[in-house]
Amino acid sequence: MKREKTKKGQAGMRNDNFQTLAIACIILSIALIALTGCGRVEEVNAAPPDSAGTERAIQNKGSDTLVNLALAWAERYREIEPPVSIAVTGGGSGTGIASLINGTVDIANASRTMKDDEIGEAQANGIDPVEITVAIDALAIVVHPDNPVDKLTIDQLADIFTGRITNWQEVGGNNAPIILLSRETNSGTHVYFLEEVVRKGEKENKDIFAPQTLLMPSSVGITSEIQRNPNAIGYDGLGYVTEHEKMIAVAKDNASPYVLPSVETGADGSYPIARGLYMYTAGEPTGAITDYIKWIRGPEGQQIVRELGFVPLPQEQ
């Protein structure tokens, strides 16, 4: 009996040891799986080797108008060049340009050109900004689909957004107050609209948006408010216009034709509120950044521009 008990005891100890070993294996497996997962993340985020063989990541930040396009470019380029990592964030053109000036990004996206004081600030930091046009955008004037107004001149738009015109009846619409929507001041689209529409491209013009203008943080905010309010008017990049908004045909002046924004009218210059979309680099781009921007400006990158509703750059034949 004693020997039998000993055998049972030894068997129990073997079972205990086996259970301990099994638990240890499970813990080890979980740890290995976790480590493998971490390794995969690091691989996805691995820095791209440039032509000089140096590994570094591409940090891309700025314009909210460009952010969806920039994300689409980055995702497609990752399929073509799997080792390349491109981190894309928005925040507005001003934020991207400030990051370029501070030396914390490789590429700043902007829906406007850099101002003289921004260029001076960059140069004071030893940075010489290089401007690269990557797409064209027709800036759409949008209202609620029930709004009977179909067309406006630049002068009328300037009067509306400065508050000199406050009722839709003054431009052929209903007897209703005009609700003004704008992007926030950090937006390159806001700056472009202020300079080219509110101030009509006149350098000495100091007009500003009417105080009652509602500043929206994003294109989604503009769309949501237009959809909700039949008396609202706003502006947005052509690529962000939805079926819940009506686009207004715009004329440069009373003697010019009214033109709706589209890829075609933005490309041929007949739509009067079209602008370039830009990437800025600190000095001439090199290595992986050169390759990436060259691909963006090439046929495949520009096809993505068209697919997202923006105007592609003319391609050399």
Task: Note the total helix count.
Answer: 10
Report the biggest beta sheet as strand number plus sense, adding barrel if it closes.
9 strands, mixed
Global Rg = 28 Å
Residue ranges: pLDDT <50 for 5 or more in a row?
A: 1-55
Based on Cα principal axes, name the global outline: globular
The helix/strand class is alpha/beta
Strand content: 15-25%
Helical content class: 40-55%
String of helices and strands: HEHEHEHEEHEHEHEEEHEHH
Determine the mean pLDDT: 85
In angstroms, what separates the terminal alpha carbons? 97 Å
Number of strands: 11
Keywords, please?
317 residues; alpha/beta; 11 strands; 43% helix; globular
What does this protein structure show overall?
By secondary structure, the chain is α/β, with parallel strands linked by helices. The protein has helices at residues 2-44, 64-80, 93-102, 116-124, 154-162, 188-198, 219-228, 263-268, 287-297, 299-307, and strands at residues 58-62, 86-91, 107-110, 129-143, 151-153, 179-183, 214-216, 232-237, 246-247, 249-251, 274-282. Strands 1, 2, 3, 4, 6, 7, 8, 9 and 11 form a nine-stranded mixed beta sheet that branches. The protein starts with a helix and ends in a 10-residue tail after the last helix.
SSE layout:
Blueprint: H1 2-44, E1 58-62, H2 64-80, E2 86-91, H3 93-102, E3 107-110, H4 116-124, E4 129-143, E5 151-153, H5 154-162, E6 179-183, H6 188-198, E7 214-216, H7 219-228, E8 232-237, E9 246-247, E10 249-251, H8 263-268, E11 274-282, H9 287-297, H10 299-307
